[in-house]
Amino acid sequence: MTPYREVFDMGIAIQQALARFAHGTPPLECGGIGERDNGNGSLMRILPMALYLHRTMGPDFSRMTEAYQIIHNASALTHAHPISLIACGLYCASVNELLCGKPSVWDGIKAAKEFYRNHTEFVLYLDTFQRIEPNVLPALPKCEIKSSGYVLHTLEAALWCLERHDSFRACLLEAVNLGEDTDTVGAVAGGLAGLKYGDIPEDWLSVIARREEIEGLCGAFSQSFEEGRTC
Length: 231
Description:
57% of the residues lie in helices and 0% in strands. It is mainly α. The mean pLDDT is 95.
């Protein structure tokens, strides 16, 4: 699924996960578990899971153990270290707040952190996310926001951009102009900004390659909720 039907890149994490799967490793055990396996790949693709959980479990899913297990399973296909799992959980909880029509993501962040604080396998890693607080992250100057491929940097950058701007266009331009891993930071920030503002510029949409196919996939995904199918 590439813009012009030509594969031009595959991340190392995906290569390794596919190799493990090809050699018989169960899918949920294919993700990397080392400290250096915390790229932003699973965070980049986790948004549909938040949409699914909100529609099937309701607006309180960010306080449900079962929901976090589903989020973690989705991440673990390629990224299984606790830092990656927590990042995906925090992002999905943020998305849930926006789906509920709330102007801020911070109640969701608080709920997710409370969940991880009560689980010993995650609590030791919470300090990694100490800057993701309403009185800390938004006040940081741009020079302290990194946009590398590290999952923590991507999550921080996306939330920082969301908090600093009041439109989809402004948020996305800030995100991609941070540099480094621009496509992924833009995707993660764009998911949040699209839900919060919904004002995606038509001049941007009009030049998307394979737009009809993408919109068709989104429509089928949404329709599956109405028909009661599971992901």
